[in-house]
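Amino acids appear as letters; backbone shape is given numerically. Here is one record.
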Amino acid sequence: MRVTVTLFIAASLDGYIAGPDDDLSWLFTDADYGFSSFYAGIDTLIMGRGTYEVVRSFGEWPYPGKRTIVVSRSSGLEIDTPETELYCGDLPGLTDHLAAQDRHNVWLVGGGELVRSFLEQGLLDQITVSMHPILLGTGVPLFPGGFRRTMLLLKDTSTFEGGLVQLNYHVMPDDEELLSYS
């Protein structure tokens, strides 16, 4: 069975996942927005080194009981959180390894470079973006430029009191397959 990799992420309406200096103070915290249900269904988290370092700065590790893999180009990163390991290999090898271990529901937590790599290699299956009704003007972009055109198929949307809109997409393997879903 193949691994399903999902990017579940929040963004401002102008396309930023964090403000300057990784500021997240603008994120809505008044409701769950489907996160608990999503989180209950995943068995592994994958994140980049930068995302790991930002999450570590929050204090208590927010992902207890979930296997976490930190992808980095260098093996010098110190890992000091529970059930967390460093991975420095190729991404197809990682997803194959997870499938062999019966790990099939993966949350791609971030960062942008890692998301771009998953997209480029055809390893990202689903994208859920919670669009917050705020314009940040600058910050960390949801999708850094430089990847190939990728078609998405809208699966569903949810709207919430306060203006947050959640968009759920299936990532199409290539442009041609979009016609078969019409």
User: Anything to note?
Assistant: Residues 12 and 134 are 5 Å apart (CA to CA). The mean pLDDT is 91.
